[in-house]
Amino acid sequence: MSLYVGNLSYEVTQDDLNAIFAEYGSVKRVQLPTDRETGRIRGFGFVEMGTDAEESAAIEALDGAEWMGRDLKVNKARPREDKGSFNGGNRGNYSGGRNRY
């Protein structure tokens, strides 16, 4: 399992996140998703730690804490939701944008 870290400064680096979470245990992996068009980080990331106890300690200490001028949001990451098919999932028949009535 990994942790979701939100409300990050756009200046943050993987090394920055690694350093702050390493205070609470071993950090296995840090991910900072970037915007496809600008290449800038998107303001959130994911941190994978060695044990559940280390994750809990990091959540307890860092959720709501101010860091780099922002109040962090730290919690267990939820699995990514399937966005469904091109028409937004199972919403019935797709009419191709035309009103048939």
Short description:
With 101 residues, this protein is α+β, with helices and mostly antiparallel strands. It contains two helices and six strands, in the order βαββαβββ.
What does it look like?
- Helix content is 20%, strand content 23%.
- The chain has a 4-stranded antiparallel sheet with strand order 2-3-1-6. Strands 4-5 form a two-stranded antiparallel sheet.
- The N and C termini lie far apart (49 Å).
- The model has no long low-confidence stretch (mean pLDDT 87).
- With 101 residues, the protein is of the alpha+beta class.
Layout of SSEs?
Blueprint: E1 3-6, H1 14-22, E2 27-31, E3 44-49, H2 52-62, E4 66-67, E5 70-71, E6 73-76
Antiparallel strand pairs: 1-3, 1-6, 2-3, 4-5
Instruction: Determine Rg (CA atoms, Å).
Output: 18 Å
How many E strands? 6
Largest sheet: 4 strands, antiparallel
| Strand percent estimate | 15-25%
| Structural class computed from helices and strand pairing | alpha+beta
Q: What's the average pLDDT?
A: 87
Give the termini distance in whole angstroms: 49 Å
Cross-sheet strand order for the largest sheet: 2-3-1-6
The number of helical elements comes to 2
Task: Please provide the ordered H/E string of secondary-structure elements.
Answer: EHEEHEEE
Shape: globular
Indicate the percent of residues in helices. 10-25%
User: Which ranges are low-confidence, i.e. pLDDT below 50, for 5 or more consecutive residues?
Assistant: none
